[in-house]
Design a protein that fits this description.
This protein has about 375 residues and is of the alpha/beta class. About 25% of the residues lie in helices and about 20% in strands. The protein has 12 helices and 15 strands. Helix 8 packs parallel to helix 9. The longest helix has 11 residues.
Amino acid sequence: MRVSREWRAAALSMASCELVFDGERSNGAQRLQQMLQSPLRRHVSHLRVDLDTPCSTDLLAQFAERMPHLHSLDSMLHITPHAVVFQPQLRSLRLRARPSFHFKGIHQLAIDAAARLQHLTDLTLDRLVPGASYAPLTVVPTLTRLDLAGAGRWKEDLAAQAQQLRALHQLRSLSACVLPLSVLLASPHQLQLVDLTARAQSEADVSALASLPALTRLQLKRLKAPHVDFLHSLPVLTSLHLSFAHETVVDVPRCTAVLQSCARLQELALYDGSVRFTSAQLVSCLERMSKLHFLRLEWCFESGSLSFLSAGCLSTSLTSLYLDGFRQRVPLEEISHINALCNLRHLTLSNCVFTKKLPRMQSRSFKPPSSMLPKLQSYAFLKAA
């Protein structure tokens, strides 16, 4: 068991705290039992449990009695296959399983148990097996966030599971990368999502996004479409994380024209794929984004110029910048465009090769406290391999 000084201090001051329990292979369950006997247990509000050996559901059930302030549980799902019981006061629950642990029954029992938590707002299910049913979750009125991003890579039962999720009208945030959007968002539906993480594997998936006009945050992975025209249907979008599938031939001028209309964006991340923007095209995309504070660009540069960082209001609005992988060498003088970002707090340069070696003095000037960027809090320069 690992107990931090902060946890002890919080317990002694009667404040809530977080506890991380790393069970050993031989006696993990026994040591967890010992922790439940400690008087400090009553102050734990967030608990993470990693056990390499199965623990009984009776042991899990003791959390409710012995940890009255526990509201968040992150647990490795490696328990004996009996009825699963979680603390009724839980508001956040994350269940994980080892890759080799594929007992279907216990996964379904865990979902059924989560459905009995009437205060649950946030549920993360990792590495579930094919055939798991999400239908029981429809009776949890407070459930607003469901994360299934790591819930397997199988192809069976996906359409059926997407149909089940359509009944979760209370959801506002959904991460479901393996499920087909064309089924999940088929008209008519009553989903009112504002936050979505998914994959668009077809034109039908892309078209289905138009049925979510209230989306404010979209993370779209491995997009298999040559354009981003669907953004015209998302008028209140403020955060966009986008990556194209490597085999996709992207219409960059068309994408540039659409991104020009996204003036409301506050976060923008474009990840590696077949898309390549010139500096002029990036200027066109960014110059109207007056509220943009987060910018992440990975392997999507056609030219080695940083002049796009001087576009529009970026010099004052940008607080976080992550640049990774220029396809051409960057003239050292281009560093001046970074120096002009007066409100920058976080800076990462990765796989960025300059025409001349970045002087040690220049690199040091970025490290907080920075004379060039006085508000900078973190800086990382990762050399190209």
